[in-house]
Design goal:
heterodimer; A: mainly alpha; ABC transporter involved in vitamin B12 uptake, BtuC; globular; B: mainly alpha; two-stranded antiparallel sheet; 14 helices; 1% strand
Amino acid sequence: MSATETGNAVPVRSEARRGLTGIGPILVILAVFLAAIAVRQPEFYDPPSLLAFLKRAAPLVILAAGQYFVIVAGDFDLSVGSLVTAEVVIAARLIDGDPALTWPVIAVMAGFGLMVGLVNGLITTMLRVPSFITTLGMYLILVGAVYTWTGGSPRGALSEEFRMLGRRGIEGVPYLQQLPYAVLVLAGVAVFAITLMRADFGKVLLAIGDNPRAAALSGARVARARTVAFVLSGLFAAIAAVLLGGFGGVSFQVGAGLEFTAITAVMLGGVVLGGGAGSVTGAMLGALTLEILFTLLNLLGVSGALKSAVQGLIIIAAVAVGNIRRRS
Amino acid sequence: MTLLRQRLAAIDSTRGVWVALVITLTVGGVLVYADGGSLFHQSSIVSMLQRAAGLGIVAIGQTFAILAGSLDLSVAYVISLTSLIAAETMAGSEGNVPVAIAAVLAVSAGIGLANGLLITKLRINAFIATLGVGLLIKGYLEQGYAGPAGSVPTSVQRLGYDRIGPVPLSFLLMAAVAVAAWVVLQRTRFGHHTIAVGGDLDVARLSGVRTDRVLIGTHIICSICAGITGLYLASRLGAGAPRVGSEGGYDLESIAAVVLGGTVLAGGRGGVAGTVGGVALLAAIDTIFNQLAVDPFFKQVVRGVVIIAAVAIYALRRRKAGRP
């Protein structure tokens, strides 16, 4: 997970530099927060508690990675929060406490996430509806559909096997004690996302975000790449939903506001709204930084109510500082 | 010539929603009649107009921001905040009403100014700037208030409920705001500059438009409209409520109403008439579904589909007309 995206080919070098400059500020902010936690609560760095933190942070990091694909191509995905809620509610109703249904339902969730992403992508690219409107409409549709389907309150229950993915881990690992499944899932998603961005797909996506016309004229399949970005966002939201369903209970609030938190994380990681610049590593580090900040605020005894105020301040400051750096 | 074409384009893009409204009311009226009710009964008209008023005023403000190529995600929190400022300043006494109104207008204008400055001077994307400001206000509200606060004197509460014939006062308030907004957009230099800035920021700047001032101005107008909605909701509830704006979904719904009315999200094309039509269409769908006793949550689904479909149709028509 380093920023060294250096390759042998000449054109890649400028990208590598962009990657580095993009990721520098977030590393500094992360380091400051980590240092503050080290002073305040050194136990945080015991492997078990560090892993517990990563487990908690995993869903947001995964959502940020998904949102990154969409944002870097110049779009938005405002539907992910409601998609997470819909997935968890669907899972609870379908499983209804039956352990045998755990894996089939997880497959259904993945399929549903892919489908929602595909619909978002096709409406945006084929019907030329701005993604802001497409995904806003999808948000209304998902919230309404889930409420209608369940009659106003979630029904059914998740199986213990399902919850295990978000809650438990591989026990008895030397030194670490427990290796949470969520951390493994997170690592898998991170490797997948970084690999994708290093492949041709990633380069095309960046080019589209930078200048869709130029990308199309140089032969990129713009509509297809943008649609794939939405599909990835939907799939990642489904994965995040599996983990979140495990931690928390089943409620309509599971995913509330997550779309904005994920977008904040992506921005914080140095990704530019409108697309074309920033790395997926930065986006995921942004999410991690946001979670560290929330942990730090907790430690400092700042009330939970101020969480959103801090989030607001951070997002404005991060983007403002980024702009000033870019101009100078 | 270009101005004429622009004017024609504006009319063209905002006309569709009124056609849709007429069709919706006709089909809805027949369905409700077949169901044994009446859509054009006084009580359903009143409820339709009242539904339209609150969202309408915010959406008219939002129209300015969107026409200028910006947008405002902070309006929902501005509404909650101003409802509290209004109710707490009034504190149940009539004498405090002018002060309360002045306070609401001043605070909301200040928030609009802050949004505008963040966008123009620090060059923060409008999405991020207004989201950030909204979150700041949300944090303040969650920190300071657990539930409703303040109290609105009965004379002001009448704004929320009184009506002249079938027309609620609140709807007249919205109509007044709409007319004022229409005049500003069609007849003043500021209005033309707003359209120019949204059409192409660089061209506007090179033509001598003070683009920063225009953008800041649209954001101040947008926030003030949210403040007026906050006042109206306080008068309806009889108190201020820390979540009235976000629970009503006024941020995303106002944007939805504007684009439903044919205003282009990227700015530069559209107008207030379309927005009023968009709000009326949403209110009509709401009322028809209520009359038919359809599952209230299903309304959301229909809303989502209607908004996406409308924007898709506008995009298709523009492509056919040969405009980008």
